[in-house]
Write a structure and sequence with these properties.
- The complex is a heterodimer.
- By secondary structure, chain A is α/β, with parallel strands linked by helices.
- In chain A, 40% of the residues lie in helices and 15% in strands.
- Chain A has 15 helices and 15 strands.
- Chain A has helices at 2-5, 13-16, 33-45, 56-76, 90-105, 124-133, 157-160, 183-193, 214-217, 242-247, 282-298, 300-322, 350-359, 372-377, 394-411; strands at 21-22, 84-87, 111-115, 136-140, 165-171, 198-202, 221-225, 236-240, 258-261, 266-268, 326-328, 340-345, 362-363, 365-367, 383-387.
- In chain A, the strands form four sheets. In chain A, strands 2-8-7-6-5-3-4 form a seven-stranded mixed sheet, sandwiched between helices. A four-stranded antiparallel sheet of chain A has the order 11-12-15-14, covered by helices on one side.
- The two termini of chain A are 41 Å apart.
- Chain B has a single domain, classed as Sufe protein. Chain: A.
- In chain B, α2 runs parallel beside α5 (100-117).
- Chain B starts with 5 loop residues before the first helix and ends with a helix.
- The chains are: A alpha/beta, B alpha+beta.
- The A-B interface holds A 348-352, 355-356, 359, 366-368, 372, 375, 381-382, 410-412, 414 and B 2-4, 9, 12-13, 33-37, 58-62, 101-102, 105.
- The structure holds pyridoxal-5'-phosphate.
- The site of pyridoxal-5'-phosphate has 15 residues of chain A, from α5.
Chain lengths: 414, 120
């Protein structure tokens, strides 16, 4: 655990807001000095636009920018950095696939399969595509334990996946239940039924916390956001298989993505540049590599272990302290679960719980966490969510319990 | 300062005007899907005044307390005067400082009231 002892010191927010107990890294993570420094270095020393400049600071910016692409590719074990497309966030990465490939391959009567535990960003784009193109929109349910209600021995997946299924869109880790889906096995099973199926993985809650290897996973696309993994906001990644990226239409048209434009026609660059129209978040993308280095220096396996211990302790402590009064969501087995603990506390509304915790400087999220289909399935209007990352420790859990005692004291036995 | 003042907690624990009025002149429902708050409000109007008003629904302490206090305030008042009630009034009535998100909870009953009174 030594790696984690001094981590807090590297995050300036803890000096500027002493006493902050930050339990909302699932929404966005805090940022270490190394990322902030890199960002300000770009803005103060070489804040030029990339690609087009022939002067030195533009070349320096281009070089640093492309270095991040290399580092992301190595981080994911991608075959080539040409498979790394920069977007604004996970949402844009997923929409890019739905708008380009989705609209190329999904026709009337085809099927799109997703799950009820998706974040809206991997649910609504597919639902709307199905409406538009007359496709069938199928949603895999969850069981009462918080797992996807499909078996990987081939017994129920056949009912859901068929030869007409064009796209399977699923999340690697649920941002509410914490469930880590056996994505690799699901893909294997799905491809047995339909080898041509396109699999899109929302890895927004996986890449920051687990060792993700696209070569092993077997998916076609994978999306995540820099801001949830210590990096700046405004940066998303779409990893895609190069042969697919080559076949796809561009998503947006404009500068940076063309080879030649005339009145009669336009030719486009190759991937990834074909998908990167306009000036990107240059400084943020440059600084993003420092976030990856930070995570790598600790090691993803250690990070995963640290979060698992904390989430399990939080789960057990809440159960022990509050018994029946607390309703905890998601799997009991933390081998299958990330550092997310969502719950409802008595009859108190999640907003009241979060507001009173905020009085104690504890930041948790309250609401539906952009997962309304899941909350409807759980028969809950909303929930409170505590999530853990590298700067959290056991003390945070003790303070959370104390905070919840205060909630009880203020709101009584309503 | 806590937003859970004595006044708010009292109205949350013992909400006034809960239920549905008999022979309502109008009944409306409003909701905030973001947090699952839902309120229905009913009113009986007599001679241009609110003769009786009640609400029911689920929601956080702030939306419940705000509903309780607002219905209490408007009872017996002339409708023409109630049309001017706005966000500023609700903030004053609650007497606590709310962030943008919690303010939405507090304003839900005002939305219901406006809907009740549009055609009167
Ligand atoms: C599982 C999951 N998918 C997608 C997103 C969307 O990420 P972004 O807002 O960065 O696009 C989130 C963020 O909350 C998430 O948790």
């Amino acid at each position: 655990m030594d790696e984690f002892k001094n981590v807090k010191k590297q995050f300036p927010i803890f000096s500027n807001f002493p006493g902050l107990i930050y339990l909302d890294s699932t929404a966005t993570s805090l940022k270490p000095w190394s990322v902030i420094d890199e960002l300000s270095k770009y803005y103060s020393n070489y804040s030029a636009n990339i690609y087009r400049g022939v002067y030195r600071i533009s070349e320096k910016a281009t070089e640093e920018f492309e270095k991040t692409r290399q580092i992301v590719a190595q981080f994911l074990k991608a075959k080539t950095s040409d498979e790394i497309v920069f977007t604004r966030n996970t949402t844009e990465s997923l929409n890019l696939v739905a708008y380009t490939l989705g609209r190329q391959i999904v026709g009337e009567g085809d099927e799109i399969v997703t799950t009820v535990m998706e974040h809206h960003s991997n649910f609504v784009p597919w639902q709307q595509l199905a409406f538009e193109n007359g496709a069938v929109f199928k949603v895999i349910d969850v069981d009462d334990r918080g797992y996807l209600a499909c078996h990987f021995d081939g017994t129920t997946i056949p009912n859901i996946i068929s030869k007409r299924t064009k796209v399977l869109a699923l999340t690697y880790v649920s941002n509410v239940l914490g469930t880590i889906n056996p994505v690799k096995q699901i893909i294997l099973q799905a491809r047995k039924i339909n080898p041509d199926i396109i699999v899109v993985v929302d890895a927004a809650q996986a890449v920051p916390h687990l060792d993700v290897n696209v070569a092993e996973l077997g998916c076609d696309f994978l999306a995540f956001s820099s801001h949830k993994m210590l990096g700046p906001t405004g940066v998303g990644v779409l990893w895609g298989r190069l042969n697919l990226l080559e076949k796809m239409f561009p998503f947006m048209f404009g500068g940076e993505m063309i080879v030649d434009v005339s009145i009669a026609k336009t030719t486009f660059k190759r991937p990834p540049h074909k998908f990167e129209a306009g000036t990107p978040a240059i400084g943020e993308i440059i600084a993003f590599k420092e976030a990856i280095k930070f995570l790598q220096a600790i090691g993803l396996e250690k990070i995963r272990h640290h979060e698992k211990i904390l989430a399990l302790r939080c789960f057990d402590t809440l159960k022990k302290e509050f018994g029946e009064k607390i309703k905890l969501y998601g799997p009991n087995n933390f081998d299958d679960r990330g550092g997310v603990v969502a719950f409802n506390f008595g009859d108190y509304h999640s907003h009241d719980v979060a507001s009173i915790l905020d009085e104690e400087n504890i930041a948790v999220r309250a609401g539906h966490h952009c997962a309304m289909p899941l909350h409807k399935r759980l028969d809950a209007n909303s929930s409170v969510r505590a999530s853990f990352y590298i700067y959290n420790n056991e003390n945070d859990i003790d303070l959370l319990v104390k905070g919840l005692r205060k909630v009880e004291k203020i709101l009584k036995n309503k | 300062m806590s937003i859970y003042s004595e006044l708010i907690l009292d109205n949350y624990e013992n909400p006034r005007n809960v239920g549905v009025v008999k022979k309502p002149s109008k009944r409306v429902s409003v909701s905030n899907p973001l947090c699952g708050d839902a309120i229905s409000m009913s009113v009986r109007i007599k001679k241009g005044r609110v003769a009786e008003i009640k609400f029911e629904g689920t929601g956080c302490a702030i939306s419940q307390a705000s509903s309780s206090m607002l219905t209490e305030y408007v009872k017996g008042k002339e409708i023409v005067l109630l049309k001017n009630l706005d966000k500023k009034f609700i903030i004053m009535m609650l007497g606590v400082e709310l962030g943008v998100n919690r303010l939405k909870c507090a304003l839900l009953p005002l939305e219901a009231l406006k809907k009740l009174l549009v055609e009167y």
